[in-house]
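User: My collaborator sent over this chain with a note saying "see what the structure looks like." That's all I know about it. Can you take a look?
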Amino acid sequence: SAIYELSCEAYKHLGKTSNYYWIDPDGSGTLGPLKVYCNMTEDKVWTTVYHDLQMQTSVGGNSPEKLSVLQLNYSATMDQISAITSSAEYCEQFISYSCKMSRLLNTPEGNPYTWWVGKANEKHYYWGGSGPGIQKCACGIERNCTDPKYYCNCDADYKQWRKDTGMLSYKEHLPVSQVVVGDLDRPGSEAKVSVGPVRCQGDRNYWNAASFVTSSSYLHFSTFQGETSADISFYFKTSASDGVFLENLGNTDFIKLELKSATEVSFSFDVGNGPVEIVVRSPNQLNDDQWHRVNAERNVKQASLQVDQLPVEVRKAPTEGHTRLELYSQLYVGAAGGQRGFLGCIRSLRMNGVTLDLEERAKVTPGVKPGCSGHCTSYGMYCANGGKCVEKYNGYSCDCSRTAYDGPFCIKDVGAFFEEGMWLRYNFHSPGTSMKDLVSRTLLSSADPEITAPDLNLNKEELSFSFSTTKSPCVLLYISSYTPDFMAVLVKPAGSLQIRYSLGGTKEPYNIDIDHRNMANGQPHTVNITRNGRDIVLQLDHYPPTSYSLPATSDIQFNSPKALFLGKVIEIGKIDQDIYKYNTPGFTGCLSRVQFNQIAPLKAALRPTNTSSHVHIQGELVESNCGASPLTIPPMSAATDPWHLDSASADFPYNGQAIGDGVNRNSAIIGGVIAVVIFTILCTLVFLIRYMFRHKGTYHTNEAKGAESAESADAAIMNNDPNFTETIDESKKEWLI
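Assistant: Without extra context I'll predict from the sequence alone. Here is the result:
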């Protein structure tokens, strides 16, 4: 049974991200596995195979040889690469020829000086950006060659460097295995050749499917040639409890795969020693309308059957007796010979490494439809963070538009770096709608896409974002309204976090203070706030959620929300005194994946969407993942961090202004050293005092286990979490420059 997946597409649908993977394009066939790079950042996966020819390889320089041959050795065999290109929807390979007095295709009429050798050792006389049978370079097709008399820049034979580049995209000719360069035998002739890796996109085999609509529907193919070895794999999806997947008959010999009951798949065959049947029993129902994978193999020694990840059932062949499977009839997929056929979908059916084109055959067969719907039932869970799974004819995609994330699975944080004084405002209703308009339209239809504030008065809201900063105090986020109501998330002067609600009914705003943690430590922190009526739940980083309750007198409606601010509050009318104080100079640092109910203001600013008209930005917003969760590096303890200065006592000039003249700088350095020494002594004292008194009044918390030995709350999390890798986050880097 296959240890490797058949393609990058298959790895993507196991929820894997871009990386190098081993793929086995023909199952257990003769090709064997190869290592490729799978790029999953777009809707369709790119598979890349590399070779060893350096970019800009020099050839010639007055060499006496007539021809110079450049050989490309790939990290895979030509047959393996052919298996990838033939199942791909599109392939390309970059090729470039830089020349100085060295002609390329000898256009318009002559015999080409240079050519490339592709699949099956065929010579090709066209160049990148052009196509088979057209002896032109890209500039000849686009009609912008340096000298219009020629169809390649190099053919003009200039003494200055020129080049012809482009993509070769006729996949039946790829990959390039050799480039043969000819025009090098004159003094002063030089050339440089570059060939990129082969890149292929899409996988026609993985989604090649047919839906069997009636129990008498079937597709037929030519006789299966599996005399001594058979390797059959496919996916099926059904809500019926039984049915034949496929069958091929001989005089007495046969081979057959069927769903015997809702929990049993059977593989049976006869090579002349009497029928053999292998059955896999699944603990779960197989007719649950989810995709299940079947892999059946038979050779002269043994036969095996595997369903999904269940244990493989193996049957040894008898030592004596017949070994050849002799079949004559056509291969039937679905109902065969009056038996009850299969109702549902079969896809990616491979027989001895060859994918049968179910889709093409289904187009001309009554009772069978090409393609299959309902991929989201099996793969929808890969759409993360509230992304919606969207059915496609051949597969699915994740719609991240209602989330603060991006990427094929909605897991890429969308974030930005805020310089001091920068701010962003997101208006909850479109420019140009008056309040009265808004009220009447909201009452008429809350589904109106123009109105992104879900209700005029909110009884509940959900807010989540992550941030990192080294400056306090500041306003991280503020939501204003057309009434005195507001909500704010602040970092107080000492670096602690405060959530502030003012919904009316109370003299003072209701504050939630998280005093015992410094949030302005340059580390990314995540904040999730959910309010439902009076109940507020706050979750910070990886700590357990904590519950709070608005005072009994407080109103529980957030009336007429108007706009959301990031970085700074620029709002007309009376503004809360503390917020006014914290507002200058403004937030400096990173904010990421900001989401308020269905609204993602940062994403609307950075990705053009239909809500981008709601956004106003002051300053230049630079996309960055420096505020992205999860945390990436353990913060240095104060004792080991040479740059540690207590933010309350020292204003560290990390904007890059110099500290006066040399005398000042020296005294600053000496002062710094003394500060570090004193700080170290203080830390040691605190540690000793804590150690001596740690048994008195012990205070138990359910914090991470690594907490006792860790220097800070963040370090405790990271000691506990294996996923933290050593990458310096950007806000720190700036600080160190």
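A starting point for your reply to your collaborator: The chain has eleven helices and 45 strands.
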